[in-house]
Amino acid sequence: MDAVRPAGLGESDESEALGFRRLRRWLVAGFVAANLFFAIAYLVMVWLGPRYALEEAGRSTSTLALALSEQVEATIRSEAAILTSLQREIRSRGGVAAFDETAWYQMFMAHLDLFSDDPADKPMHALFFVDSTGIASASSVSNPTRQADASMRPYFIFHRDHPGDELHISEISQSKITGLWVFFLTQRINGPDGSFQGVLGMSLRINRFEELFAHLRLPADGSIVIQRLDGAPLFRHPFTEAFATSQPGSLPRVAGMVAKGAGAHEQVSPFDGKTRIIGYNVGRHYPILASATVTREGALAGWYRTLSWFTGLGLAALGLGAILFIFALKHLGSLEREARMRRLSQTVDQNPNMILTTDSRGVIDYANSSFYRFTGFEPDQVIGATPRILKSDETPPEVFVDLWQTIRAGREWRGELVNRRRDGQTYWASVVISPVLDEESGLCGFVGMQEDISERKRIEGRVAELVAELKRSNEELENFAYVASHDLRQPLRMINSYLGLLRKRLAASFDQEAEEFFAFASDGARRLDLMIVDLLEFSRIGKQSTREMLDLNGVVADGMQNLAVAIRDCGAEISVAPGLPTIPGDRSELTRLFQNLIGNALKYCPEERKPVVDISCRDGGREWILSVRDNGIGIEAECLEKVFGIFQRMVSRDKYEGTGIGLAVCRKIAEHHGGRIWVESVVDHGSTFHVALPKA
User: Fold this and answer.
1) Which of 48, 68, 247, 567 counts the highest number of beta carbons within 10 A?
2) What SS3 class is residue 120?
3) How far apart are CA 678 and CA 695, in angstroms?
4) Does the pLDDT at position 616 exceed 90?
5) 653 pLDDT above the threshold of 60
6) Three-state SS for 279?
7) For residues 90 and 110, is the Cβ–Cβ distance under 8 A?
8) Mind listing the pLDDT tens digit for each residue in 347-399?
9) How many CB atoms lie within 10 A of CB 80?
10) Is this structure's pTM higher than 0.85?
11) Which long-range contacts (CB under 8 A, 24 or more apart) does 371-379 make?
12) What are the angstrom distances between the C-alpha of 546 and each of 114, 318, 539, 543, 588?
């Protein structure tokens, strides 16, 4: 095959001069761009640096807040364990009525000894009991205890009005006896009947947390805060009176922090007036909000040092570094462009699809090897011609009208054409034609790609013929089953009638054997009639169905109503999960489906066992999966697929009556609704039938 030189290619010297001019332009532009780049980079760094520094401070304080909340929750959890242990002992000893003041004191001291061997740790706690009238009648501080009225304390009101055993954390308060700042952990005491018996509590000194916070590395201007979710103060380090006396809800943005759960933001501190970066985290187990803060100036201090260092170094290296950087960038860019163009050329030329490019008039200026190989044309027959060389008379003219209108409007066209090769043979092609636009969005050419899809079109045509043939065959089979089952009943009824007449006329001369023969014949005719009736019903499924939105609760209820006598006679227990979904379907068919599944569960249950049926539903994504579980005889593993076949029986007819068509009807109904049915079973333990039906 002759090589084709692209049109418009100049002489080698002209090309070389063009390359030098291009190189000089790149060098000049590169020098200017390098200096501009560093200037912009410096300005962007100055602009974005503080933001990144503040974001990093936010991440750091958020991490500290997380560690803080976990440590605080661990501390509260360990203290709450004392209250939980006390609750157990109170219940084991018969409730609060079994305790006098001395008994309370002894129990409190025993638990303090149990939970801590450190003498310095015990004064951190003070256990107390407030009875149901609000009187603090016992504590671990002294025995006897000063009877104080706690009925107006927030924790007492909370537990009195909330019947649960929730742990309540009170806001910080100053002890009138010791002058120390404490907060209370309290729990409600319930009687056996759930009645309010009083409050069990523990006062926890805030210096309990000092040792914890010593392990957290805070900046010199940093602070740590613990609050309840309503903003009530619990602890601050460094501690301030203004924080301790603040009211719930008075601290800014607490509600927003609680709503988000974790994060960081910037705000002015109400305690020192400084703008601070605040990282916060809400406790996972207790209603606490932990915050770690650093001043804005502290967060930016490291950034200012970095900026000073970068400014000096950047100014020193800008001149030489910019030239070297731009030169290397230009050289690498050239190599990259050359490699990219080489790869592009190889990719296009070796592409198995046929590719053409044309100018804006539609004149072909390039075709790849696959085009020549498949169509049989030579390059001199293609270059300079138009794509009309491929045109056949089998593509409607309006297709080409739409094609040209689309691509001349600057849009891509996709479609299928019947083209022809050089030897006149036609082929189906899947074609994509895209316009090529210049820098001013002007149309300068087209790129077309086509793929031979003749074999696919042949297969699609054959598949369409087979589908139509299969559809006709199915319709004929269904019509045959309907007509045959309908017409067979008349002669069968005649057989039954004459058997009855013969039995009446000849009964006097029958011996036992003749009586058995007539019984066998009558029973066979009866079972054949049942099979014909079932076959008739099977053939009718889907013929006259009407689709509507159905509440499956009503559908299952209809099926159970039809089985009401059978359910009552066998004493079955049937449970239906609440809130079954609403789906599109035919009411009579779906009622028949659930009626068959429930009826089978009642029928195939051992006589000595009461039938138990459970109907449930779960979300399967694009479908609802309904399950009918029973406690019947079960199905052998090798029979799980066979049970849905028509007239398939897995058990003896002498023990369980039936034609073996019920589950085949269920499968046909499920498939008619676009669903599926399958079964899981364990012999002698029951079966679970699953029906998947598409959602609306």
Assistant:
1) 68
2) coil
3) 18
4) yes
5) no
6) strand
7) no
8) 666 677 888 888 888 888 888 888 888 888 888 888 888 888 888 888 888 88
9) 18
10) no
11) 372/1, 374/421, 374/452, 375/421, 375/422, 376/421, 376/422, 376/423, 377/422, 378/1, 378/2, 379/1, 379/2, 379/4
12) 74, 80, 16, 9, 9
CB 396 within 8 A of CB 411: no
Residues 6+ apart with CB under 8 A from 540: 482
Tokens, residue 119 = 């003498």
Q: Which long-range contacts (CB under 8 A, 24 or more apart) does 614-622 make?
A: 614/574, 614/575, 615/556, 615/574, 615/575, 615/576, 615/577, 616/577, 617/552, 617/577, 617/579, 617/580, 617/581, 620/692, 622/694, 622/695
323 vs 329: CA distance, rounded Å: 10
Tokens representing 644 are 């849905």
Q: Is the dihedral of CA 373, 377, 383, 388 positive or negative?
A: negative
CB atoms within 10 A of CB 356: 21
CA angle 573, 574, 575 (to 5 degrees): 120
Supply φ then ψ for residue 483, to 5 degrees: -65, -45
Residue type, 283: G
Identify whether the C-beta of residue 415 lies closer than 8 Å to the C-beta of residue 432: no
Long-range contacts: 99-105, Cβ < 8 Å, 24+? 99/129, 99/138, 101/137, 101/138, 101/143, 101/144, 101/145, 102/143, 104/129, 104/137, 104/138, 104/139, 105/138, 105/139, 105/140, 105/143, 105/145
Q: Which of 237, 219, 236, 217 is nearest to 298 (CA)?
A: 219
Closest CA to 126 of 201, 180, 178, 67: 201
- What torsion, rounded to 10 degrees, do the Cα atoms 75, 81, 87, 88 define? 180
Count how many residues are written for the chain: 696
